[in-house]
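Researcher: We're teaching a course module on how sequence relates to structure. For the next exercise, students receive a sequence and then see the predicted structure as C-alpha cells, so they can try to spot secondary structure elements on their own. Here is the exercise chain.
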Amino acid sequence: MSHTPSIDIVIPTFNGKYLLEKHLPEVIKLSPGAGIIVVDDGSTDNTPKYLKENFPQVVCIHHSKNLGFSKSMNIGIRHSKADFIVFLNNDVSPIKGYLEKSLKYFSDKDLFGVSFNEENSSWPVASWHGGKFQFVTGVDKTKPYYSGWLSGGSAIVRKDFFDKLYGFNEIYSPGYWEDIDLGWRAWKSGMKILWVPDALVIHQHESTFSKLNPDFVSTIKQRNELLFIWQNFSEKKYTSSHQKFLTKHALRHPKYLRIVFFALVEYLKKGKKTKGSLTDTQVFNLINKPYEN
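Model: And here is the predicted structure for the students to work with:
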C-alpha cells in the first residue's frame, strides 16, 4: 500500500456497558491510530454517558430502539470515511499486532477482508450436502486459508468493497447468517476472503444473543439459514436437492413448516437473488484451501 491506511473500528452494543468496560480499554490500547465507532443499539444502561465521560475520543451513535446487528453495523460503517473497517463485537479483546498482521495481506488487490484468529475458533470448511449449505470448523490453524466468509464479530475489510456489496443484508435482522451472506456475495463478485492465524483476538462470547429466549434464537437461526440458501443459490443441482430436503424434513418434522412459512414471508417481502461473476460451484472450488501468495 502506497500510504498509511486509515482504519475505523465499529463496535455494536446493546446493554453491554459492562462489556465495554472490560474490553474497550484493550481495543484502544492495541489499535493505535484507529478511530472507534460504537453503535449503541437502543441500550438502557447509560452507555452513551459512560463513553462520553470515559472515552470522549470514541464516536457513539445512539439508537432510540433496538435495530439489530446488521442494521447497526451498516449505520456505523456508513458514518466512517476510513479505508478499512474492523468488525468487532463488544465482547472481543485484540492481541497486540492484530491490525498490522492482517493489513499485510491486502497487497492482494482482490482481497475483500481478513477474518481474525479467535482463540477458540477457526476458519469454516463449507460444503453442500443433504440439500443444505453446511460447514464445520477447520482443523489446521497453522497457516492462512481462503475462507467462505468473515466473522461478523472479528474481521477487517476494505470499506470500498463493503460499499460495493451494499453492506450487510438487513433481511437477516436481528442477526445470524448475515456475515455468511456477505462473504458469499463477496466471492461471487470476484473478491477473496482470508482467515489468518497471526491476527489474534480473544472472543469472550458474552453477546446480546445469549440473553435472549433460546426458542426465539433457534427460530431466527433456522429462518435465516433458509433465507441465505434461497437468495444465494441458483444452480439447479443445489435448488433441486434443497427442495427435496425441505419436503423430507417437513414430513418428518411438521413443526418445521412454521420455519419455512416464516422464511417465505420475509423472502417475498425483502428477498433478492444474488448476482455475480462466479457461480456457487466456482466459489466452492476456491475456498477451504490454503492461502497462496
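Model: If you want an answer key for the exercise: The chain has two domains: 7-207, 211-277. The chain is about 40% helix and 25% strand.
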